[in-house]
Amino acid sequence: MTLTSDPSLAKRPGPVQAELLAAGAWSARHGVARFALSRARKQGDLQAQLFTDPAARADPFPIYARIRSRGPVVRGKFMATTASHAVADGALRSDAFGVVSDPEALPPLARWLMTRPNRTVGPVTPPSLLAVDPPDHTRYRKLVSKVFTARAMAALRPRVASLADELLDGLSGRSDIVGSYASLLPVTIIAEILGVPADMRSQFVAWGSTAAPVLDVGLSYREYRRVDRAIRELNGWMSGHFARLRRSPGDDLLSRLVQEEESLTETELLAIAGLLLAAGFETTVNLIGNGVSLLLAHPSQLALLLAEGGWDNAVEEILRYESPVQNTARRALRDTEVAGVPVRAGTFLSILIGGANRDPAVFADPERFDVRRANAREHLAFSSGVHYCLGASLARIEGEEALRRLFERYPDLTAAGRPRRRPTRTLRGFDELPVALHA
Ligand code: HEM
Fold first, then answer.
1. Can you give the residue ranges of every domain in the chain?
2. Would you identify the CATH topology of the domain 7-436?
3. Where is the signal peptide, in residue numbers (predicted)?
4. Using the 8-state DSSP alphabet, how is residue 427 labeled?
5. What distance in angstroms lies between residue 417's CA and the mean position of ligand 1's atoms?
């Protein structure tokens, strides 16, 4: 469906009306799911456990293995789930599956809440690329895909490398490697590509990490309101920035997009720009942080990399072993079959990317972290099919340069305190990773 109603043109609701609308949107997206998940968990449902159990946030892998042992598609109380690589890949590539956020698939009230004027334009609701099917998806993706080709990104490698060195120059003694390095590298690069001021990077990181739980299911009302506020603040700033770029465009992606005004509404612009900015740094920070943590925990693997190289394959293995995006979902648009399993029209399928990436049918001895693994690149960490990550080439370059330059400069880097995991479940990584740098 084409979404033309533009929230930016709508009249602002009063405070009471705004609170009622927020409560409605929360119930439709999170409240009902929160209640159903909590009931299902008490009844032993594995998927509900995955989405609500605090222990499963720290270590979801045993639950993935249990789900996989029950079959390629496991029908739970909440929705169907898969931790099978063949099913995950098959469903992501199949045109018999679509996104779960198509308003047409929702009950009337939820549909209205999702499409009403003055709704919050975020990464998981239309018209975000992540939340629309072709043909809308094809049209939006075409507008931005040229900028992110493997070739265009390869030309950026020297800039990524010099920025990594510059950030490392600023470190000494004890540091939180996430706050002072892993988060700053990707946000600066994506800011430069898009044409948003890199000196606002701390503000972008703050908005991004407050908004990151938006990808999870079953948020509390308080959390939902915090997330919603951060997205609205970012959107407010972004609209002002579009106005500045219309007056004096630069040589960057957003300047080009604001000039597409005939084909893009303000809502579509906000959705594209917000997703690119947030996806550009909220995920790669986890690749770098997870990489540091894994290499510190596996010193012989690090020694191998320092002696013989092979950082590109190490990045693939980090993506496989500790996938920064652990899950996504799709809805069957018609009766179909995936990897030999029949799936009925309307089925919601939770795709456990982190589980597929440890499927022993594809990866021998999958619980072993092996930077020399020959088929590490078969992971689904960047998804598959039409929604395959637009920034995959950029993320690979950033991960490789960030990790290689850090460990080559500080080969004796050690952990220096308790790491703090991010509170999110879909995004897997660290908020804080204290290290000691021994030059
Ligand atoms: C290690 C880093 C990254 C990981 C693990 C990652 C992962 C993913 C995944 C799993 C999806 C698809 C989700 C689905 O199929 O439902 C996706 C889509 C996307 N990613 Fe990334 N991503 C990363 C970095 C980036 C970067 C640096 C950018 C910057 C441009 C980016 C931009 C996007 C966009 C725009 C989409 C939506 C594509 C579409 O729907 O057509 N990502 N990413």
1. 7-436
2. Cytochrome p450 (1.10.630)
3. none
4. B
5. 31
